[in-house]
Amino acid sequence: MQLPPETKLLTAYRKHWAHRFGVSPFLPMTRAEMAARGWDACDIILVTGDAYIDHPSFGMALIGRLLEAQGFRVGILSQPDWHSVEPFRALGRPALFYGVTAGNMDSMVNRYTADRKIRSDDAYTPNAEPGKRPDRAVVVYAQRCREAYPGCAVVVGSIEASLRRIAHYDYWSDTVRRSVLPDSKADLLLFGNAERAIVELAHRLAKGEPIGEIRDLRGSAFMAPSGWRPGEDWTEVDSTEVDTPGATHPHPDPYSPLPSPLPASGERGQASSPHPLAGEGPGERATAPETKVSPHNTATIFPLRQLKLEARRAERAHTVIRLPSYEQVKADPVLYAHASRTFHLESNPGNARALVQAHGEQAGRDVWLNPPPVPLTTPEMDYVYGLPYARAPHPAYGKAKIPAWEMIRFSVNIMRGCFGGCTFCSITEHEGRIIQSRSEESILHEIEEIRDKTPGFTGVVSDLGGPTANMYRLQCKDARIEQACRRLSCVYPDICPNMGTDHGPLVQLYRKARALPGIKKVLIGSGLRYDLAVRSPEYVKELVTHHVGGYLKIAPEHTETGPLSKMMKPGIGAYDRFKALFEKFSREAGKEQYLIPYFIAAHPGTTDEDMLALALWLKKNGFRLDQVQTFLPTPLALATAMYHTEKNPLRKVTHTAEGVEVVRGGRQRKLHKAFLRYHDPENWPLLREALRRMGRANLIGGGRQHLIPAFQPAGTARPIVKTARPAGRSGKRTPGQRSAKR
User: Fold this and answer.
1) Which of 28, 138, 640, 663 is the most exposed place for a label (fewest CB within 10 A)?
2) What is the β-pairing status of strands 365-369 and 220-225?
């Protein structure tokens, strides 16, 4: 992505005066460590729900080292006891602000399974000890910081804050919750990869600018009085003018307060000229601007359309879209789905507009979201990952094992972002669709750092990857197209012709990495986008021949069109093509290697018949899955909007819009999971009952054509508890039933 002209590089700031203290071996966690550094105070205190591991794979270490490199004194409060305020005073009052995060994972996902059961361990805690962070840690930590030093600036961030920056469905309470901003009482929320925003924020605060006046940071959100604007030239557009929804039942005025009621559903169509970039409809692929050629010469003349496009972009930069309010999306599923769709259509840093959403419990208060952050350039990525990390847990943990550290200590993150757009995944909402890649030199240098400085290294690099292993350096072929595009995915329903799919730089990186002295093997552990990989047989050959340790994990997620269309995943044919290449190159290399496919049970859009078809496919292909995943609705994800609303936000949401089959009840979720583990005798009673109900009793028996046997081994049957399905949409519990269950 081309940087906007006003963008300031991370390396362009004059260092804060405290840079004279130099680099800390570890960022201080105690007053004694501060004293040893000669500090009387911290400029910034970072509060995290994770153990402090000084490695760029851990967010607080990366942000802390970046701020230190800018000259600030940075302290860490790791997993403070939130039951009292004193632990939040351990490092004194920060001169500039508290930076609060739940950690590398959302605290609710970290603690609870997809069945809402409490997990028995925490991978980001010494010895995996559970219970070291509160539920909804961002809110709890921020409130304690406020209590510790009233008046001190509090900034929240990381994935938990990012996914809760507007009103969102919360799976664990089965309700729509408001933005994390009013609950945390934070001054500012930084969403996405926040390096640019937090560096600029720190320098502006250090110069004496009040945090309450800093309202122009990209990638930031804040509370504002209703009707507030950054300037007189700003225009507010109702989200219904961008993508007109319809109601499932009559509302006298569903978007109140508005100057006048909206027409009834069906009386109002899409605006004939929706705001800037009207030619680029929601979710549509952008195309290159037209050009004109002079009849007298072949020089390309800058097109008039491009001039108009630039004018529209300038107008968009001073436009804010008003989403339906928290109260409205909480009360009406259609408005929730509409708000979710609008939010995702305004996620491209090249053309996104600001968003605003009223939270009326405090009269006249809005949550204001600035456009997403501008991605880092390759030199900036190299700068961030090349900082002087200790690459180890803080010495305070002694010999304690921290599973998350053990998993990544011999791996290297080579890129960020994902343009796949899978609806169940939160990577896009947090890191964005534009790939940010490190240079080859930076990556090779980090491998050498692992080789030379990490205890226990045996010569095997466990991963060169990121959110997706093979999106390294892949980008749109035209920067103008990339900045104008509003597609939700670059690879669904097919790979966009504007998307570059050259795996050559990645192949070259693999070859250079394994050629380094002392490196025996480089494995690829990150997920692979196989529909991209098949575009480059050379890459597949390189991967299979040199970088697979016997097994390669990939994620088809399903075999059937219904659920795949709601996931925005390719058909199973792409898997078959990749499998053929994988097996061909494995044979040529003389290696016995296997694909390990991952599948999701109970995803929105999945029927019992879909799961049965998947189970039959698994048996036909000889797969017996040990671990399976049940769909977990995470805040802001498009699949979560489907789960909550039973509408499809991948298309315009109206009263006649496509409905989505949703699996809610625990019994049906167990059934879908049981289909994935059809070979487990404990699942056979549940599957037999379901097959008979579905009219497929012919699949019960002892032959090869049967899915499960008719007999039950002694001691393997789980009791079947029959529960009446409540009336209502797809078996969703009524409010009274929800309260009774809680």
Assistant:
1) 28
2) antiparallel
Identity of the residue numbered 689: E
Any idea which of 105-114, 138-147, 263-272, 311-320 has the lowest mean pLDDT? Answer: 263-272
Q: Same domain for 213 and 100? A: yes
Residues 6+ apart with CB under 8 A from 736: none
Q: How confident is the model at residue 296 (pLDDT cuts 50, 70, 90)?
A: very low
Number of domains within the chain: 2
The last residue of a domain, from among 351, 372, 393: 372
Q: Rounded to whole angstroms, what are the CA distances from 256 to 167, 262, 323, 324, 360?
A: 17, 9, 11, 9, 11
Same domain, 146 and 250: no
CB 432 within 8 Å of CB 372? yes
Do 330 and 208 lie in a common domain?
no
Element at 441 (helix H, strand E): helix 440-453
Rounded to 5 degrees, φ, ψ at 312 are -65, -40
Cis omega (within 30 of 0) for bond into 395:
no
Residue 659 lies in a domain: no
Output the six-digit token pair for 111.
């603690």
Which helix (H) or strand (E) segment holds residue 181: the answer is helix 180-184
Q: Is the pLDDT of residue 98 over 70?
A: yes
Measured CA to CA, the distance from residue 362 to residue 385 in angstroms comes to 42
Residues 66 and 210 in one domain: yes
Beta carbons of 64 and 92 less than 8 angstroms apart? no
230 and 215 housed in the same domain: no
659-664 average pLDDT score = 94
User: What b/e readout covers 570-601, taking b as 16+ CB neighbours within 10 angstroms?
Assistant: bbbebbebbbebbeebbeeeeeebebebebbb
- Partner residues linked to 54 by β-bridges: 392
Split at pLDDT 50, 70, 90, the class of 196 is very high
Neighbour order of strands in the sheet with 629-630 = 551-557, 594-601, 629-630
The answer to whether the bond into 257 is cis (omega within 30° of 0) is: yes
How far apart (Å, rounded) are the C-alpha atoms in residues 537 and 551?
19
Alpha-carbon gap, residue 375 to 438, rounded angstroms: 12
**For residue 155, what is the domain's CATH number?**
3.40.50.280
State whether the Cα torsion 192-313-246-646 is positive or negative.
negative
Maximum average pLDDT range among 283-287, 421-425, 717-721: 421-425
Q: What are phi and psi of 3, to 5 degrees?
A: -75, 135
Q: Using 50, 70 and 90 to split pLDDT, how confident is the model at 181?
A: very high
Please state the pTM of the whole predicted model: 0.88
DSSP 3-state helix, strand, coil percentages of the chain (rounded to 5)?
A: 35, 15, 50
CA dist 472 and 414 (Å) reads 7
Does 561 fall in a domain?
A: no
Of the residues 191, 219, 247, the one at which a domain ends: 219
Report the b/e string of 356-392 with b at 16+ CB within 10 A.
bbbbeeeeebbbbbbbbbbbbbeebbbbbbbbebbbb
Are 203 and 319 in the same domain? no
The DSSP bridge partners found for residue 601 are 630
Beta-ladder partners of 157 = 190
End-to-end CA distance of the chain: 48
User: Does 117 share its domain with 61?
Assistant: yes
Comparing 338-342, 357-361, 373-377, 471-475, the range with the smallest average pLDDT is 357-361
Spatial CA neighbour of 487 closest among 367, 568, 414, 560: 568
Range of the domain at 339: 226-257+303-372
With 0-12 / 13-18 / 19 or more C-beta atoms within 10 angstroms meaning exposed / middle / buried, residue 14 is: exposed
Same domain, 20 and 110: yes
Is residue 171 situated within a structural domain? yes
555 within a domain of the structure (yes/no): no
